[in-house]
Design a protein that fits this description.
With about 650 residues, this protein is α/β, with parallel strands linked by helices. The protein is built from 21 helices and ten strands. It has an eight-stranded parallel β-barrel with strand order 2-3-4-5-6-7-8-9, surrounded by six helices. The chain has a two-stranded antiparallel ribbon with strand order 1-10.
């Protein structure tokens, strides 16, 4: 889809596309010149009080930006021209940076209506920087710079609870943004890293207020609210997500907390347990390989910055995907688009070979049961325990999909569909994926064939895949306890559309098989503190090609209500509109936060929204709906309920 922004009498290039979710196949943009008025200032056409089209919304935002920060006009023109020229290049590295630049440019402009004066001026400064030429260092130069970056991150990680590092965190995020779009050369990056390294030891002691906040968190664990529900952020964006940022410069603070006045209790991030070369990825590892960005902070640092803001971090440990997929590359959370999610863009920097379809390098649920990941989880739980503050750990998002579906047979690594249809084993590898996906989409591999799915592991009355997932949770719970991680609450989330067979045509990997029942996953009391569902990318109504809230949640909720899970507090992780549509976000927000949660699904005690990559709040109606339905809604006005860890067991059922 090609869109042009029309701004009367403004010298602009219309480079603002609808965004990756609504036009992933074609991100080309139409650019048009317009003239300046006699005064040299843009003359903007009259805009309706409430924009009726995307073009009108863009005009409104540009008008606000130029009125509040006149110097931004020149930067907008230059950035738009840079994007237009860049799309004519054949350099894949530069093209990837251009895709990120375009999306960042779009976000900056469209968010101007909600930013404070300070943040708006910072955005204008960033726009001026973005207008500069690409100056990407070579891969060899980057390797050296990454080593220096890792040392800086280690300094920040070690001292963040004792030093006031806010200026250093802001400088860190400036580096992240500008290197992500390739506008800093080696010398500039090197100079900024040097400044950072020198400033950290000289920082003053942490302010008293923050030290008191940390002291009050020490030795606590998270409980569900007595009534109502928590609200939080799912930070894993496919473009330039908040999981890369450690300062308060990020949009969720500037828009959700400052502009709307909401209080966020939770903030989540995903961690694949291994990299594309098969090596483990720990919490303290900087330059996370799955991000495809030149620099990224360790998740341990990310967690500590959130604790300093009073947020409870949610870390989701995920196995790599062993399921067939037409988009399969390496990491399930990053490279496979979920419902409505954009495909991961081409990496701006070559980060080495991907795992691809080499299943021998991919660790699975059986590896957890065999103890091959014991040291990995022990080490990471010890890191979390050392923080002495509440952390929610989610194990294997979408556990009813890849994790369980690939955990059958005597080896624990056999996909269930090879047992349901043994003829598939005779197909060559290059034909197997296509054939399986076709059958899955038609719902022909959903039947429960009985003993064949149950007689290779444990209890013969329980399907082997769910039983192995259940036992993996038990094993990891034991490791967390032995590691002294009393501050940890454990959670697990099924994939969206669990139990919905009608959804298989569009989502063939959904956990909707006859054997895939939540009751088979029940690990007993005291293993998981939270249970839930993830990747709920739903439509408030019923638009063709999308799923409604009922499609995504009804099957899951009904199974919970009729099983042992009914007493476990429920969490929805990564919820968002099915498509990027700022002008209709108010309907989605009203339906979810004002109607469904309090009325239809009162069991849901925490909700993490995908922001700002999915829910945008760019339009006035959407922004107003969020303030009414969330900020002013007593259901979400909850303080994080924290109790001493030793009381958790006794209090969890209250």
């Amino acid at each position: 889809m090609r869109l042009a922004i029309t701004v009367a009498s403004a010298a602009l290039f219309a480079s603002l596309c609808l965004g990756p979710q609504s036009q992933a196949a074609d991100r080309a943009t139409v650019y048009q010149h317009a003239g300046l008025g006699p005064s040299g200032k843009p003359s903007i056409a009259v805009i309706p009080p409430q924009p009726q089209t995307i073009d009108e919304l863009k005009e409104l935002r540009l008008k606000q930006l130029f009125r509040r920060v006149p110097r931004a006009k020149e930067a907008v023109e230059k950035v738009a021209e840079k994007i237009r020229q860049s799309y004519s290049t054949s350099d894949s590295r530069e093209m990837a940076c251009t895709q990120r630049l375009e999306r960042l440019f779009y976000q900056l402009v469209m968010a101007t209506g909600t930013l404070s004066e300070d943040r708006l001026n910072e955005a204008a400064d960033l726009l001026s920087d973005l207008a500069g030429p690409y100056k990407q260092p070579s891969e060899a130069e980057l390797e050296q710079l990454r080593e220096r970056y890792k040392k800086v991150c280690a300094q920040l990680d070690d001292l963040i609870f004792v030093k006031d590092l806010e200026p250093a965190l802001h400088a860190h995020d400036r580096l992240i943004v500008r290197t992500a779009v390739g506008i800093w050369d080696r010398n500039k990056i090197e100079a900024e890293l040097q400044k950072l390294a020198e400033s950290i030891p000289k920082a003053p002691d942490i302010p008293y207020g923050r030290s008191e906040l940390l002291r009050n968190l020490e030795g606590k664990r998270l409980l569900p609210p007595v009534k109502g529900g928590y609200i939080g952020i799912s930070t894993d964006g496919a473009w330039l997500g908040e999981n890369l940022f450690v300062s308060t410069d990020r949009p969720s603070v500037g828009i959700l907390e400052e502009a709307t006045g909401s209080a966020m209790q939770l903030e989540s991030i995903s961690l694949p347990v291994q990299s594309s070369d098969g090596n483990p990825i720990d919490l303290e590892q900087a330059d996370r390989p799955w991000t495809d960005f030149p620099f990224s902070p360790p998740i341990s640092l990310w967690m500590k910055t959130r604790l300093l803001e009073g947020h409870v971090p949610v870390v989701c440990f995920n196995l790599l995907d062993r399921q067939p997929s037409p988009n399969y590359n390496s990491y399930s959370p990053c490279y496979q688009p979920g419902l409505g999610k954009p495909p991961h863009p081409v990496g701006a920097y070559d980060r080495g070979p991907k795992v691809g379809n080499d299943a021998s390098k991919i660790q699975s649920i059986q590896d957890v049961l065999d103890g091959k990941l014991d040291d990995y989880f022990r080490h990471n739980f010890q890191l979390i325990a050392a923080m002495k503050a509440p952390v929610l750990v989610c194990l294997f998002d979408g556990f009813d999909q890849s994790a369980a579906a690939s955990a059958f047979g005597s080896d624990g690594r056999t996909p269930y569909y090879l047992l349901v249809d043994p003829k598939l084993t005779k197909l060559p590898a290059e034909k197997l994926t296509a054939e399986v996906l076709q059958k899955l989409s038609k719902g022909t591999l959903v039947k429960d064939i009985g003993a064949e799915l149950r007689n290779q592991y444990g209890d013969p009355s329980v399907p082997d895949g769910p039983e192995r997932v259940r036992d993996a949770w038990k094993r990891i719970h034991g490791i967390a306890t032995a590691s002294g991680a009393t501050n940890v609450s454990l959670a697990a989330c099924a994939g969206a559309l669990h139990g919905n067979k009608k959804a298989l045509a569009g989502q063939p990997l959904a956990g909707a098989q006859d054997w895939n029942k939540l009751e088979f996953y029940w690990p007993g009391e005291g293993v998981l503190d939270w249970f839930g569902i993830t990747d709920v990318w739903a439509d408030a109504g019923k638009v063709k090609g999308t799923f409604s809230f009922a499609d995504c949640l009804d099957g899951f909720i009904q199974e919970v209500r009729n099983s042992n899970w009914r007493s476990t507090p429920l969490i929805v992780h990564d919820i968002a509109p099915a498509r990027e549509d700022p002008l209709n976000e108010d309907k989605w927000i009203n339906a979810w936060f004002s109607e469904l949660l309090p009325a239809s699904f009162p069991e849901l005690r925490a909700c993490l929204v995908s922001f700002p990559e999915a829910l945008t709040l760019w339009a006035p109606d959407g922004f107003g709906a969020f303030r009414r339905s969330v900020t002013s809604n007593p259901y979400f006005k909850q303080k994080a309920r924290l109790v001493p860890a030793k009381q958790q067991q006794a209090s969890s059922s209250q």
